[in-house]
Amino acid sequence: MHNAFIFPGQGSQYVGMGEDFYSNSEYAKEMYNNASDLLGFDLQEISFNGPDDILKQTQYTQPAIFVHSVIVDKFLKDKDIKPDAVAGHSLGEFSALVSANVISFEDALKIIKVRSTEMANAGKNSPGTMAAILGADDQQIKIICKQDGIVVPANINAPGQIVISGELKAVENAINTAKEIGVRRALALTVSGAFHSSLMSPARQPLLEIMNSITFNNANIPVFQNVSATPFTDAAKIKNNMINQLENPVLWCDTILNLKKEGITDFYEVGPGNVLKGLNKRIFPESNTFTCNKLENLKACEVL
Hints:
Blueprint lengths: L2 E5 L11 H6 L1 H14 L3 H7 L2 H4 L2 H21 L6 E4 L3 H8 L5 H21 L2 E7 L3 H8 L5 E8 L2 E7 H13 L4 E4 L15 H9 L10 E2 L6 E2 L2 H11 L6 H10 L4 E5 L4 H9 L4 E5 L2 H6 L4
Parallel strand pairs: 1-2, 1-9, 2-7, 9-10
Antiparallel strand pairs: 3-5, 3-6, 4-5, 7-8
């Protein structure tokens, strides 16, 4: 193994993403049109023109990032850049499954439609939020999360970079605790729910039902999954991990370190933004990470 595709999740979106691919590729046009038909709303309009306060709503953010990522994945593979392994951050794990031929684009989008809608509903019915904690060690994270109410680590992103998730007041208190014990920085995130916590449990059954209606295939390359940070190719295990991902933390730091152990040195961030490139600089600074979010960036990497 020497290269991996890594797929971003929520927070990587920006207004205008994917428009350059749409304007220059019949394949991209077809993918956006098919997605809009399946979703029941104009994904192109929201992706390309926003506004930002609409694009960042979970039910729009998730499919927008996913479709963009799958299009970039195809562009890379058409130029004979193919991964030895894949991984995706939260939502990005669905893009990874499509890349590894575990599920089809259409089936993944069906799941994401349910997942994003149900996660948004869970956020409305059980209000929660998330916060970034920077510069805390493991013991400090335990202290920060020890609150009245639900607060849990949600994204273990990089050394000293953790996102916590939970009930509104509990997260607010956790931020105050972090400041009191001298953590470098603690800030609330603008999100519509307490993702990767038990507050997402109402979305579990609808997600399970839609996933049970879809055929999962064995992966043709290893998929390093969020819930354990380890590789899987077995269809049943991959599916079970995707269900469990909803309420459990994203072990991203360990995922990258485990890819490193397998000999991966080159990463392609396949999708909008460059969040994962920034994390890689902290986790695995000797690695090469190519940002593949725009046609011009792909050209700069000599991909095209």
